[in-house]
Fold each of these.
Amino acid sequence: MAGVVNRRCTLEVEATEERLSQVRRIAAAHLRHWGLDLQVAPVCCAVDELLRNVAAHARGDKSSVVEIRWSGRQLTVSVADRDHRLPRLLTSLKGGLGKVAALSDSWGTCATAEGKVIWFTRLVKDAQRIPAPGSLPTHTAPAAQPVPPLPLPHEVPAPPERAREPLTAERTAVAADATEDTPTLSAAQGR
């Protein structure tokens, strides 16, 4: 996206385990709406990590404010809470701020009058829309050719009926010979 864009999403949430999936879905919806599909996974993962830290470590009030800002080149995400203790970066990248650092281009913490803010940024060079599944292909199928009609089944005229005469061995042999010469049609072939 060229030029300056000023988009912002602010969510006030209670940092609880039950709310995490809801916050991820809301953040993902905003990112997709802004055309930042490729940012959904890393941003939601980092936001999830920061909110889990508030739920696990903040003393007292667990209310938080998640803010996502998109400038057209940089995505800035912050999570504010009411605990005044600033977090520490541990050496492990498996969780906490180490995970946030691994998912971002820059990050930091800042004390506020109400508590603290932890933020991170991600630089975005190009629009990142992902085509929807089942979108139209770039090539088309060849034009459909008409199907030739199926040949009609071969009809054989019925043998002329004879007057009812008593069956004799000779008539039975003649009838058997006539049946062998006459093709029969199955139900699949038509009648």
Amino acid sequence: MTTRESTDETTHDNRHPAAHVVNIAEKLAGFTERWAPHRIARINDYEVKIAKVQGEFIWHTHEDTDELFLVVSGTLTIRLRAGDVVLNPGEIYVVPRGVEHCPQADGETAILLFEPVGTANTGGEVSDRTREPVDA
């Protein structure tokens, strides 16, 4: 049994909360700030986050975890020291743990991220771009 955007915590088998359908486009329409992660789901010890991005982020690494990028709309370039990776809508790329990278988007781009709970968006770097995720 699936519910849409319901806060009803009923269970279908008395062990698991009813699943909630999340409409990514609707969630993206709910904010305008760029480079600010918004949490849309949690699975085990991972969070699914969305963000709108434009311009260049900062060079950073995530020493303890890989980072999955999925482009929802627009085009994202993930700059790596070894060469750039260009992602179009519907494409994913996993930046391996410890690999320095710098996301960049020439036009507004919507992305989905999948990473462990507590992962800072700027990795081990602290800057004016460091943001705690908020619920979308």
Amino acid sequence: MHIYYTLSNFSDDGINIEFPGLDGAFTFGSDMHDALYMAKDLLAGWLINAEDDGESIPEPLQPFEIPVPKDDLLIPIEVNTEIYRLKFDNQAIKKTLTIPRYLDALGKEENINFSLVLTEALKEKFCV
């Protein structure tokens, strides 16, 4: 698990994100939800690329080490690179589960792909 801090500032067209201490780690979002999503995705990608290239991962700066301009926000972003790696490993695995009979009947009637429904529900549940 890694936690790094962003400097976030508002502009006319959205929110700019910078990771102090990580060279070239800048991103943007149209609103706060989008900006935080983009920040998490950028951080995971940055760290995974560094790991894969054999580079050392810089120690995260602590909040008191980061000068924060007047109108900026200091926001912590947490990522688990192991989970991100698994997220992009699309190998399917078989799961056995139990559902109520009536849901099974309704699903079959509607030609529901139960694996797809479960996958979509889990992605929504875990915000991935």
